[in-house]
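User: Here's a structure from my thesis project, written as structure tokens. My advisor, Dr. K., wants to see whether a designed sequence matches the one we expressed. Can you design one independently, without my sequence as a hint?
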């Protein structure tokens, strides 16, 4: 049973973090505040890694090390930033686990990873190196998820959250006077061909699971009616249940673009950004997590399919057995990334129970 005082302390911490919201890569105040909080309230060893940090519970003679990860960044909003995804709650709960660890002997080392830049996918790849540095055996994380029963632990075998990446296609032709379009090479038609080909590419039946290519936007030439377009740019978000399908889809789009460009005598290049590998749960470890949750009195629900959004926790699975679970934020709770959303403090007891039970038995 989680102590009411701990729940109250973590709730107050969450509200303070909410007021410090900073976008990805700029979490200086948030990081500093969390480090000061843990320094003043725990004897954890703090490891400052620049944009992020670890808090470490060490026990002499421990034969294994497990880790917990939470993200610290917020989303751009208006002229500033706002915690519209609940990372303030994730970090507050992880700090709460640090408080819970005080004076306990568990027979294992515990590494708490406070990660920056999850929203852009830039933080996970960097912070996952902590698992290798500390020889971590298993790593855990949770994400609050609106639309599900308050406090329920949401389990997903295999992929928890989709792989995704942003893709930019740049087409380069030769501009001309609008009265003499035959004198140039207009890349707009090749760009349009790729757009029209997207539905057939994603519905080809070759995929192992849900695979998507979402058209985000495009720019062809300039709004200058005396000149035919000499350049074009497409912005896509690619998404799939697994990394293999995502890689294959990207290759198919590249081939389609190159064929269309060659046919029209123009050039094409591409770049990727916001790269998220699939967050895939280790089956054996997830089975153990479910058992521990049920023994702790937590409600468990099996998710029928992965979350469509992405989570850079996927990087952690390359270095240790990794499990991410969801925690229901409420059936009618506002959706993530919307202006009415905020982390529901009503799930603090369940999230603290989850992390403490895993620290003790996971």
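Assistant: Designed independently from the structure alone:
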């Amino acid at each position: 049973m989680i102590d009411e005082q701990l729940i109250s302390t973590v709730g107050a911490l969450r509200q303070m973090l909410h007021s410090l919201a900073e976008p990805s890569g700029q979490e200086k105040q948030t990081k500093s505040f969390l480090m000061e909080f843990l320094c003043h309230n725990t004897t954890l060893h703090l490891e400052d890694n620049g944009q992020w940090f670890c808090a470490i519970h060490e026990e002499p003679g421990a034969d294994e090390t497990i880790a917990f990860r939470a993200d610290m960044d917020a989303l751009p909003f208006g002229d500033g930033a706002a915690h519209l995804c609940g990372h303030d709650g994730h970090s507050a709960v992880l700090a709460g686990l640090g408080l819970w660890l005080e004076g306990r002997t568990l027979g294992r080392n515990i590494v708490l990873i406070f990660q920056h830049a999850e929203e852009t996918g830039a933080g996970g790849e960097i912070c996952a190196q902590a698992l290798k540095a500390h020889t971590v055996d298993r790593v855990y994380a949770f994400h609050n998820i609106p639309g599900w029963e308050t406090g329920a632990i949401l389990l997903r075998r295999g992929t928890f959250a989709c792989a995704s990446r942003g893709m930019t296609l740049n087409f380069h032709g030769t501009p001309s006077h609008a009265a003499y379009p035959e004198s140039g090479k207009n890349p707009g038609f090749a760009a349009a061909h790729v757009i029209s080909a997207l539905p057939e590419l994603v519905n080809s039946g070759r995929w192992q699971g849900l695979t998507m290519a979402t058209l985000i936007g495009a720019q062809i030439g300039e709004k200058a009616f005396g000149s035919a377009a000499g350049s074009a740019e497409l912005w896509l978000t690619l998404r799939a249940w697994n990394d293999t399908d995502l890689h294959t889809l990207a290759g198919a789009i590249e081939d389609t673009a190159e064929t269309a460009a060659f046919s029209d005598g123009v050039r094409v290049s591409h770049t990727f950004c916001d790269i998220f590998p699939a967050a895939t749960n280790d089956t054996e470890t997830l089975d153990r997590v479910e058992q521990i949750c049920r023994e702790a009195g937590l409600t468990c629900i099996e998710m029928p399919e992965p979350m469509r959004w992405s989570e850079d926790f996927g990087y952690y699975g390359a270095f240790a057995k990794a499990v991410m679970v969801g925690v229901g934020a409420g059936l009618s709770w506002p959706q993530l990334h919307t202006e009415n959303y905020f982390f529901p403090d009503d799930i603090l007891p369940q999230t603290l129970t989850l992390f403490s039970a895993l620290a003790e038995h996971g």
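When you compare it with your expressed construct, this may help: Residues 165 and 185 are 30 Å apart (CA to CA).
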